[in-house]
């Protein structure tokens, strides 16, 4: 009887809950349903926040102030919810004194404190010493969502 009604109306008979007793079916345009589902899935993927890996490079003989600026950049990357890859580039004879670079990276870790988690500890890769830092706390959404903000009426002027 349901199949006959579906053919008359031009809709598809879709089994919604096959394990129920009796099975539950619904009359719908299945192509339209699939299209709406794919649009909803695409929209959900689009609004998903995926963190990027931002890279920061510097040399071992860096001025104290310049190092502070680099640390500030790393803080900003982490606050935005991105990971930070810190690369220390050694050239020529600087390779002999790689412990200077290790001290700089330790100093950076200690100055970031609880803002960062060391995801990959400092290690030498050829002439570069790299480490990866991840944000300690996930970022909070910056925009206001529709349902969670209560707006009061503006104050009435008494004139």
Describe, in plain words, how this protein is organized in 3D.
- The protein has 159 residues and is an alpha+beta fold.
- The chain folds into two domains: 1-31, no CATH class; 53-135, Translation initiation factor 3 (IF-3), C-terminal domain (Translation Initiation Factor IF3), CATH 3.30.110.10.
- Helices cover 35% and strands 26% of the residues.
- Strands 3-4-6-5 form a four-stranded mixed beta sheet, with helices on one face. A two-stranded antiparallel sheet has the order 1-2.
- The N and C termini lie far apart (70 Å).
Kindly list the characteristics that best describe this protein.
159 residues; alpha+beta; Translation Initiation Factor IF3; four-stranded mixed beta sheet; two-stranded antiparallel sheet
């Amino acid at each position: 009887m349901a199949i006959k009604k579906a053919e008359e109306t031009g809709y598809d008979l879709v089994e919604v809950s096959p394990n129920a007793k009796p099975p539950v079916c619904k009359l719908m345009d299945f192509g339209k349903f699939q299209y709406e589902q794919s649009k909803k899935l695409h929209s959900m993927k689009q609004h998903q926040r995926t963190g990027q890996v931002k890279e920061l490079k510097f040399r071992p003989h860096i001025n104290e102030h310049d190092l502070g600026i680099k640390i500030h950049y790393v803080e900003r990357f982490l606050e935005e919810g991105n990971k930070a890859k810190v690369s220390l580039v050694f050239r020529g004879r600087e390779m002999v004194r790689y412990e200077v670079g290790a001290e700089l990276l330790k100093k950076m870790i200690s100055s970031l404190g609880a803002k960062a988690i060391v995801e990959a500890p400092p290690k030498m890769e050829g002439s570069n010493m790299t480490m990866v830092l991840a944000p300690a706390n996930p970022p909070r959404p910056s925009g206001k969502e529709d349902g969670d903000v209560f707006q009061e009426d503006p104050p009435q002027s008494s004139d």
